[in-house]
Amino acid sequence: MGFRVGILAASDRGARKEREHTSAQVIRELVEEELMGAIVEFRIVPDEKHEIMAALIEMTDYYEANLVITTGGIGLKPRDVTPEATLEVVERLAPGFAEAIRSAMIAANLPEALCMRGISGLRGQSLILNLPADPKGVHESMKAVMGYLPTALNQLEGRESVDEGEGA
Fold first, then answer.
1. For the chain, what is the domain count?
2. pLDDT per residue over 20-47, tens digit each?
């Protein structure tokens, strides 16, 4: 399909290169294999609101990513600020994606499901999704929304979906 995708990992330890960010690899594989998307930027930043905001703005405005997927920083810990950073840069919310992600986490019986504060929203023609840091949570989240992403991304670009009727 040719969608341009940015991946942003929010992790203090990852930014210090103290741990590998395997959840980003899960995102990369699913985007490339199932969405047929191209990764235009991958970045790891510390759990700092201004750094997350700057990376999101750069990925959407400079790299013109159709989709930016964040991983990490959406729990209840004091340094988990990805949702707040995302709220600062999005122009409109797209709550259905965050709802689907939480539902998938609950269905998978993942203990952190109700602690997830991730959001989804729009900046220009880009969709931003907040995912957890855990690779299993990322996989479940991506599977929950993958089939809906082409429709959303096509709508953002002003293209109609093949099965889209009038008034949609």
1. 1
2. 779 999 999 999 999 999 999 999 999 9
Global pTM? 0.93
Which element (helix H / strand E) includes 123? strand 120-123
Q: Looking at the domain assignment, is residue 161 inside a domain?
A: no
Mean pLDDT of 87-103: 98
Chain centre to alpha carbon of residue 86: 10
- Edge-to-edge strand list for the sheet holding 120-123: 38-45, 4-10, 67-71, 126-131, 120-123, 92-93
C-beta neighbour count of 65 within 10 angstroms? 28
Cα 119 to Cα 117: distance, rounded to the nearest angstrom? 7
CA distance 87 to 121: 8
130-145 pLDDT, tens digit each: 999 999 999 999 999 9
